[in-house]
Write a structure and sequence with these properties.
The structure holds two protein chains of two kinds.
Chain A: H1 2-30, H2 46-71, H3 73-80, H4 83-113, H5 115-119, H6 123-145, H7 149-165, H8 179-194, E1 218-219
Chain B: E1 3-12, H1 21-30, E2 43-47, H2 59-62, E3 66-69, E4 72-75, H3 80-86, E5 103-106, H4 108-112, E6 123-126, H5 163-171, E7 178-182, H6 191-195, E8 201-204, E9 210-212, H7 222-226, E10 232-235, E11 240-243, H8 248-251, H9 258-261, E12 268-276, H10 280-284, H11 291-298, H12 305-313, H13 318-325, H14 328-335, E13 352-355, E14 363-366, E15 369-372, H15 388-395, H16 400-421, H17 427-436, H18 441-452, H19 456-459, H20 467-474
Parallel strand pairs in B: 1-13
Antiparallel strand pairs in B: 1-12, 2-7, 3-4, 5-6, 8-9, 10-11, 14-15
Helix pairs in contact in B: 15-16, 16-17, 16-18
The chains are: A mainly alpha, B alpha+beta.
Chain lengths: 229, 496
């Protein structure tokens, strides 16, 4: 059992992160063409809205919450020290999760029932969708049955993640946790592992330069420095 | 002043016979692949009609092009603020239903069908899902249906007409139509480029061709929504957008694009225009009625020594300047003012210009008898089958005076040539018509020459691209000796 736990919580994270970094870069360099959002909105427009919008906004909100809990544990604890504020944080995080859940269900339904959307759904898409579904469900389950995760995250997940960063994985932070939380963690590392081989890579190429570039773009064969109007 | 050169185009609509050879030439070369079956980089529409995709001119529906927001220009479909909220679901994206679902036929059924009382048929089969479908729309679905209530009456340009004009238009028993071939306009102020979140779309500095970098495109689909002419298309297989590339591999080797080269009616002209890129922003902000002149103002005189000097300073090759001097497009657009841009009120400054069709009603049937509509050979163009307001809604942002000027000149040249060759009109009368149409005899002869008997070299004046010099600055040409193809050499497949 400990060997198994060691593999899941002590080795898988390193494999996942290394694969993520190495193959994302490798794919970008050698198969740059394959980096795309692979949108299917063109084929089905109506359910698309009810799936993609709640899912993305929900999941981004929740992910930012996880990041905040990791980077600013002190501040989160201080915020949670008052009961009303703890409720506000937990309820809004839960709402974010519910949005993501509703979205992913709509995405599942859409890809399964619409023949055109189904055609452009690959095996990897189904795997990623299922993992995301499990991930959201186990996250919501954790929040519902193992209350006040925003507080105990700092005491359990933070030292675990820090120990991973220090190359000295302390898996005994994780092993006593309820199964649903463990599922959440394993799912997360698996998603990181599959990330560079799936459509998830579109996250890496989100269009940030658009917000500060000039509207028109010109490329020259001659003057290489004259890229913009 | 920032002088650039632009490969520009003129389509002479009076000569278009609607044969679709251009569309087929393009399709066979560029869009005969999975995911691109529904794309028509070149298509020919019937006007009045709804076009492709259906009602593309209705910008309340598609939200393409630019709109004025006080003194500033902004994209109608998206912008820096809205791009973040709309990145997951583009609210103005047309779907496949607005084009059509591509299909093939189950030809095997012709051979394998069990014996029965009826002839077996080849059933239509979707090229997306592979399932049998009922065809609901297709390329050129409303071809030649000008005047039909189902399609022609939904033409967005008809809103420029009065009820009476509409009735007249449709009264001549379903006969009123002209053809409107369309490719990417390779605009000076392209909305597709400005909308691309990834910066994948760009205008080539040397010749102004607008391209999508397939390696940088991430399929956010903003360009499809932003282009008011709906000339960027989303490839649903590769998850990348594609558009007309003006056959740049052909242009770079001195050949006209395939649609130009194959044109049966020889309606197409291609040449260089020099323009001042610094003026684009101010000119695009003018009022609708000023836009046609504003665009003409931006186009510079390639014979002016000062312009030549500044162009050369800005890196325009002397061969390109030479080509600009011989450009048929320059003559049609700037010298003779015969060619007008399509829907310039979208403010993208399209660089494909149209010589509008005259469509004279020569005669009508009065019972069994043929009745001449006018006392002369050619009737007054105010009696044209398609009202001037309709044409001006298409080509001059609703300014019917500009359209009248063009039609008057076209008519005068035609009358002049008839007087010379047939002789049933007096030369004096024809010369008088020329004069009142702001046209001299020499100009009329030149217009006639370029319109009717121009050779391939007259119609397509393509400057040498000098890619060999450009490539030398970047790579050793010997390194690429015996290599095949161009661009990146990766299989265009979906994802990994």
């Amino acid at each position: 059992m400990t060997y198994f736990s060691m593999i899941l919580y002590g080795i898988l994270p390193y494999v996942a992160v290394f694969t993520f970094i190495f193959f994302s870069i490798y794919r970008y360099i050698s198969h740059g063409f394959s980096y795309s959002s692979l949108s299917s909105q063109f084929l089905e427009n109506r359910v698309h809205f009810w799936g993609l919008v709640p899912f993305h906004f929900g999941i981004i909100f929740v992910l930012l919450g996880h990041l905040a809990a990791f980077l600013l544990p002190g501040q989160i604890l201080a915020w949670n020290s008052e009961l009303t504020r703890l409720y506000i944080l937990e309820i809004s995080a839960f709402m974010g999760g519910l949005f993501a859940l509703a979205g992913i269900l709509a995405i599942f339904l859409r890809r399964w029932t619409n023949p055109k959307a189904k055609i452009v759904t690959s095996r990897m898409d189904w795997i990623v969708l299922s993992l995301l579904f499990l991930q959201i469900l186990s996250g919501l389950g954790t929040a519902a049955f193992n209350s006040w995760g925003s507080s105990w995250f700092t005491a359990i997940a933070n030292p675990y993640l820090v120990s991973l960063l220090q190359l000295n994985p302390q898996i005994n932070y994780i092993t006593p946790l309820p199964w649903i939380v463990q599922l959440h963690i394993v799912c997360a590392w698996t998603l990181v592992l599959l990330f560079p081989f799936s459509r998830l890579v579109h996250v890496l190429v989100v269009p940030n330069p658009y917000l500060w570039r000039k509207p028109q773009m010109v490329r020259w064969n001659w003057n290489r420095n004259q890229r913009f109007i | 002043m920032n002088i650039r050169s632009q490969i520009s185009m003129v389509f002479h609509l009076d000569k278009c016979i609607g044969c679709h050879t251009c569309s087929i030439a393009c399709k066979n070369i560029w869009t005969d692949r999975k995911g691109t079956e529904y794309m028509w980089w070149n298509n020919v529409e019937t006007k009045p009609g709804t076009g492709f995709p259906t009602k593309w001119e209705d910008q309340e529906k598609y939200r393409g092009g630019w709109e004025k927001d006080g003194n500033k220009l902004r994209l109608k479909s998206t912008g820096k603020a809205r791009i973040v909220a709309n990145i997951f679901h583009n609210p103005s994206l047309p779907t496949m239903d607005d084009y059509y679902e591509p299909w093939t036929y189950d030809y095997q059924n012709l051979f394998n069908a069990p014996q029965g009382d009826d002839q077996p048929t080849a059933l239509p089969k979707s090229m997306v899902t592979g399932k049998y479908i009922d065809i609901e729309a297709g390329p050129n679905w409303d071809d030649d249906l000008g005047g039909s209530p189902l399609y022609a009456q939904n033409d967005p340009n008809l809103s420029a007409l009065t009820e009476e004009q509409k009735q007249q238009l449709f009264a001549i028993e379903r006969l009123v139509l002209f053809y409107f071939p369309r490719i990417c306009n390779h605009c000076l102020n392209p909305a597709c480029v400005a909308s691309c979140p990834s910066g994948a779309l760009y205008k080539r500095g040397e010749d102004g061709i607008v391209l999508i970098d397939q390696n940088r495109c991430r399929g956010w689909r903003s360009c499809v929504a932003a282009c008011p002419y709906k000339k960027t298309y989303y490839n649903w297989t590769t998850g990348k957008s594609e558009k007309c590339i003006l056959c740049f591999p052909r242009i770079e080797t001195g050949q006209a694009p395939a649609c130009f080269h194959s044109c049966v009616g020889r309606i197409r002209y291609l040449g260089v225009l020099l323009y001042d890129a610094d003026k684009i922003e101010t000119m695009a902000g003018k009022t609708d009625r000023e836009l046609v002149d504003a665009q003409r103002d931006m186009i510079l005189d390639p014979f002016d020594p000062e312009i030549i000097r500044l162009a050369a300073e800005n890196g325009v090759h002397e061969h390109t300047i030479q080509a600009a001097q011989e450009s048929p497009v320059y003559k049609f657009v700037k010298v003779w003012k015969l060619a007008l841009p399509p829907h310039i009120e979208y403010r993208t400054f399209p660089m494909l210009f149209y010589v509008p069709p005259m469509l004279p009603v020569i005669s009508s049937m009065d019972g069994e008898a043929r009745k001449n509509m006018a006392d002369g050979i050619f009737p007054d163009f105010d009696q044209a089958r398609v009202p001037i307001e309709f044409l001006s809604s298409l080509f001059s942002a609703g300014d019917s005076e500009k359209m009248r000027y063009v039609l008057k000149k076209e008519m005068a040249v035609r009358t002049w040539r008839r007087a010379k060759t047939v002789g049933d009109i007096s030369l004096e009368k024809a010369a008088g018509m020329l004069k009142s149409a702001d046209c001299t005899v020499e100009e009329a002869e030149k217009i006639y020459h370029l319109t009717s008997i121009a050779t391939l070299e007259d119609r397509f004046v393509i400057p040498p691209a000098h890619r060999e010099e450009a490539i030398e600055m970047l790579n050793d040409p010997l390194e690429y000796k015996q290599h095949a193809g161009f661009g990146f050499r990766e299989k265009p497949v979906r994802g990994l």
